[in-house]
Design goal:
This protein is of the alpha/beta class. The protein is built from 13 helices and eight strands. The termini are far apart.
Amino acid sequence: MSANQPIAIIGAGSIGLAWSIVFARAKFPVQLCDPSAEQRDHAKAAINERLQRLSHYGLLDEAPDALLARVTLCDSEEKAVANARHVQENAPEDLALKKDLMARLDALADPQAAIASSTSTIPASQWAVNLPGKHRCLNVHPGNPPYLLPVVELIPAPFTEHHITDAVRDLMIAVGQKPVLVAKEVEGFVFNRLQGAVLREAYCLVRDGVATVEDIDTVMREGLGLRWSFMGPFETVDLNTNGGIERHAARLGPAYRRMGNERGQDDPWTPDLVAKVVAQRRARMPLEKWAECGLWRDEMLMKLKAMRARDSPV
């Protein structure tokens, strides 16, 4: 398919508008459609407002008008998918609605185009299972908003052809996103399962009278969140313990198991599981670089602290 073929965005809600910015920023023509005339009338002004803010913070390489000019509003799905290389659907989280919509898109879209859903709750194996073109369907779940949070989850169904997943991954990289392959269709995928784990424990701590809502937010905002803004949980604990993540698991694994047991969740870090995690971390960061990477972590935290001090209203 040609590199200058348009991207079809179906749905002009907040996610559809945000996807339009992602693709227009990467110089792709965008064909944006919504069944609501009111939503279509509002779309360009809403996109422009976001573009102006991005420009204010130096996050655009071009003037907002140049990006906005790449977005064409369409009053039908047929016009939106015409000649599109990729179709990104952003309808509400309703399975019956998605099945009907995806059946129409499958019939209308170029046979070579990938058909993707932004849904965070409905796997493609449910909405695409009866489609003639189910082989080119998958979930492409973004962080919100994707023009600021580049992580995007790619969740193929068991019937999604590998070359489709590979092509979508390449497209996401080309538009500046950070694709993550979710190898199994688990509920919540990865993003929301991690977020959900933190929220479940936060709610329990409030319920049990351990801490207030504000105190828990402070722990995240002034502690865990600072590190997690540039490191993942495995990288964080790998650098927290001299000897790396293997020693961390040996020292604290039993305590974390007891914490889980308090919540009725017994998921021990078995030797095989720890070895798998250690192998992937050591491939990413040899243990000989532990001290060097620890200094990098501290420098990143210093930069964050300095930036927050500059932006403080006090």
